[in-house]
Amino acid sequence: MKRLSIILMCFATLSFVSCSSMKSLTASDAAAKAVGQSTANALIGLYKSYKANGTISLSNTTDLTNALALATGYTGYRSNQTNSSYKTSFAAGMVAAGGSLITSANVNSVINTMNNLTGLNVNASNISQNVNTVTSIITLLQALGTAQ
Measured between alpha carbons, how far is 3 from 25 in angstroms, rounded to an integer? Predict the structure, then answer.
């Protein structure tokens, strides 16, 4: 249990550093596509866990890692949402990694749903916000399920 707590604290710290560094990310097309792919992979991982278990759990290291990757992608997108080239490349990255779940037909809906969520602002100094994060991610996963 103590080892799990240490691992979770490391993930939280890394996510804070990672999310902070996303704000200064150069808004290149390649970087935006890579962030979109990472975000899609995280979302698909969370979706599979949600479908299998009916929920996601931040005590599960895979779910936690995917939640942090999703929050990092969200932060990168929000930081560059006025850059149309970034938005286009981000969406292309999501479609490239999205398989049959995130397609060109539903990518804008998925991004808009993600963009409208408030609980994805992961803050390592405020761990109680994780409840809001999980609630927001479940809302996003439910939207993804109805987009199929």
Answer: 32
pLDDT tens-digit profile of 46-66? 999 999 998 888 778 888 888
| Overall pTM surpassing 0.70 (yes/no) | no
Domain spans of the chain? 2-146
| Alpha carbon 146 to its chain's center | 18
Nearest to 79, CA basis, from 32, 119, 41: 32
Nearest C-alpha neighbor of 38 from the set 85, 77, 84, 83: 77
Q: DSSP letter for 116, please.
A: T
Give the DSSP per-residue string, 102-113: S-TTTHHHHHHH
Residue 91 and residue 107 in contact, taking contact as beta carbons nearer than 8 Å: yes
Pick from 100, 50, 52: which is nearest to 70 by CA? 50
